[in-house]
């Protein structure tokens, strides 16, 4: 019997992916909190106008690096959320390795932290996958 990866398993894979990122990106991520949850909560669902809790694999919640000079007092720390259950569905359907999928979602959210374009995110993901 195959057991689905746990929240902790996904977090471990994501942390390993962070360690493979270039130094200049990792330094900026030191204060970003990485959270793995089964699904987005009701606030995220409403804010992102999601139809179902299965519609989102990951989320960057915060102010991108270019906006850091005007952080309001009392602002929450920047966070990257990875949503386990939707990722497991994509994993089961895609045939990709779990590591590749988690890295892809993580790098996409890291890209939002830096305000990067999709093209720049693709280049970072390629380097992190090496």
Compact description:
By secondary structure, this protein is mainly alpha-helical. It is built from 6 helices and 3 strands. The radius of gyration is 15 Å and the shape is globular.
The number of helical runs is: 6
N-to-C span:
31 Å
Q: Poorly predicted ranges (pLDDT <50, ≥5 residues)?
A: none
* Rg (CA only): 15 Å
Tell me roughly what share of residues is in helical segments.
40-55%
Structural class: mainly alpha
Largest sheet: 3 strands, mixed
Strand order of the largest sheet: 1-3-2
Identify the overall geometry: globular
Explain the overall architecture:
51% of the residues lie in helices and 11% in strands. The chain has a 3-stranded mixed sheet. Helix 1 (7-20) crosses helix 5 (98-114) and helix 5 (98-114) packs across helix 6. The mean pLDDT is 86. The chain contains 6 helices and 3 strands. 25% of the residues are buried. It is globular, with a radius of gyration of 15 Å. It has 130 residues and is mainly alpha-helical. The N and C termini lie far apart (31 Å).
């Amino acid at each position: 019997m195959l057991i689905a990866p746990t929240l902790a398993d996904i977090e471990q894979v994501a942390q390993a992916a962070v360690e493979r990122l270039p130094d200049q990106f990792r330094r900026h991520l030191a204060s970003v909190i990485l959270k793995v949850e089964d699904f987005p909560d009701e606030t995220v669902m409403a804010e992102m106008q999601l139809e179902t809790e299965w519609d989102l694999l990951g989320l960057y919640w915060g102010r991108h690096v270019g906006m850091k000079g005007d952080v309001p007092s009392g602002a929450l720390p920047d966070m990257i959320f990875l949503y386990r259950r939707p990722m497991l569905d994509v994993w089961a359907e895609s045939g990709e390795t779990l590591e590749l999928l988690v890295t892809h979602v993580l790098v996409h959210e890291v890209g939002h932290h830096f305000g990067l374009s999709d093209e720049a995110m693709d280049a970072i993901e390629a380097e992190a996958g090496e």
